[in-house]
Amino acid sequence: MELETNTSGLEIKTQRAWLANSVELLSSMRFAISLLTIIAISSITGTVLKQNEPLPNYVNQFGPFWFEVFQHLSLYSVYSAWWFLAIMGFLVLSTSLCLIRNTPKMLKDMRSWRENVREQSLRNFRHKAEWRGTVSREAMTQQMTQQIKNLGYQFKLVEKENASLIAAKKGAANKWGYIFAHAAIVVICIGGLLDSDLAIRFQQWFGGKVPFEGSGVLISQIPAQHKLSLANPTFRGNIAIPEGKSGDTAVIPQAKGVLLQELPFTIRLKKFHIDFYSTGMPKLFASDVTIVDHETGKTFDSTIKVNHPLIYKGIAIFQSSFDDGGSLLQVQAHSMTGANLGKFPISAKMGGENKLTAEQANGRDEYTIEWSAFRPFNVENLAREGQDLRAVHPNQNFAQKLTADLDKHSGSAAKNANNKDLKNVGPSMQYKLRDKTGQAREFHNYMQPVLLDGSWVFLAGARDSPNDQFRYLRIPADEDDKLDEWMRLRAALANPELRSRAAEVYAKRALPNAGAEAMQVQLANSAKKGLSIFAGEGDAPKLAGFTAIAGFLENIPAEEQTKAADVFMKILNGSMWDLWQLARQKEGLPALELTEKRAQFLQLATSALSDAFFYGAPVYLQMTGFEEIKASVFQVTRAPGQNVVYLGGLFLVIGVFSMFYIRERRLWIWIKHDAGETHALMALSSQRKTLDFEKEFEQLKKQLGVPEQPTESVTTSS
User: Fold this and answer.
1) Which end of the chain is more exposed for a tag (fewer CB within 10 A), N or C?
2) Burial label, 634 (beta-carbon count in 10 A; 0-12, 13-18, 19+)
3) Taking every annotated instance into account, which residue ranges of this chain make up the domain ResB-like (predicted)?
4) What local confidence, expressed as pLDDT, does residue 57 receive?
């Protein structure tokens, strides 16, 4: 008496077998479940893999081979891929056909009483009960109908031959759960298709619209084939507006290039507000804007916050993020090569470029400085616990011990993520230095010195690839918290004449006794050679700093390396002091008295000089001032399918609630007069046989007054 579960589809009568098979497959449950499974897997992929990123990011992440594979599968924009939209369309078609096939049956079954049952068929039910009574058939029938009515059952009384049948039902609305749940799938998919970029694809296929792949061009100069009209029914784009500026065109990213979406109004950003947590993460950001309607000229002010969008003319304006709006920086460029101590100013604008001539780069060709990021403050974790992970290890050989200083004085600006010591270390800027061949190296420099390991240092980060971590050169700040003394020492180290004079001064200072001229000459030659090796002018000119010293000492027998290294480093440190004083003397500055603080500065300066050979730039750019200009990034969307999806969500809630919390029960009571007594046969049926149903059956017998008699025959499911 129950509907059987059928996974087959709609069967049509036609002489074309392929058509009948296709319709049956499309409308079958197995096909719909397969589509839902594919959509679920695709959605997982779209969630794990960041969508609509610039293509070079995926190349760096996956490599050239897998980048091509994933691109052919459209995994970088899963939800707008043709195959995903096709699956959504087939799911709508399949579920709609399933509804067309099953809804009439379910509605008919909900209205039916299933009164065409026989006494013998009721005896075959698993849940049944029989009993006899002395009252008349009419009296028992009236008594039973009143009882089942009180229990909330709807019933129909059918007179059979010499018998009365009470057909009752409860929870027939359970069928609506299946109808609403399937309808929800159709409605949600239609809403999703309405909000997809299907409309934009149609305009590209049939309207001649193509993505714009250029850059550095004013929006007004971009041809019309790259712009979408105001009639575009659905879109989702971004618009970045600096403070005090306006915008009326959204940018819609595409796999290659962008499309431009015109808006029916202009957004003017009056003020951007931002608040931060102590960790440096944004706490709150909002934008005070003025909207100007193009059609009516209407103007009004509004504030757009995160999760509080402005909706105007069917277009929602969300506060998406924030960016730099072209901040102006004052930068001082310091030479990092040769004996030149020159420096020159640069006026920079974020997002812009500056040319670096070959003369400014000390003859190292021409470069382009691309200004990419500016942060007015940086909250860094400056805590360090125990020995640095990049410090010297006891089991390293001599060369490894000596060259490990490079890693010790470079690397992340925030060394230890486990111990928290969050401090604002001031403004920073990020830029790329690109040569004529197109090769670029990225830099990240802090404006102010930072206190690390008890010393104030300027952090100058560098990396070769966006996937790499910045490694920081630590330049010690002098007594005036400037770079002047370190830059002066760097230029002096590159001057062979000053190195030679420093070696002689050091030899006389180390051996002041009369009659030690021969030893002074020998010590001066050793000091001169040590300075030359450290400066990168030794027998291996490609090496410099501690790496070059390690390479030189490897030629000494292993058992004598440690002793030779101690002597070598003492001579180097002593001659570096005199080199520093000669550099100051050259500029007319007085000599300094050796103190513990200055000795520590010299030690840090020497280490930084060794690391500087790996910095990879002809100049060091130091920010000396800035004028911050903020920009707000808005996401503007027209989503006609949003309300459709909400409606589908409502249908889904109703459907799930009906299926899980409404149980259909069918009750039959066959009453007849037999051998001077009234005989009653009751049967109960439900789609889901649960423990609750077993209890309900027992409770129902008591409520209907079924007596505990020997004639009673009850069978329940095992």
Assistant:
1) C
2) buried
3) 29-698
4) 78
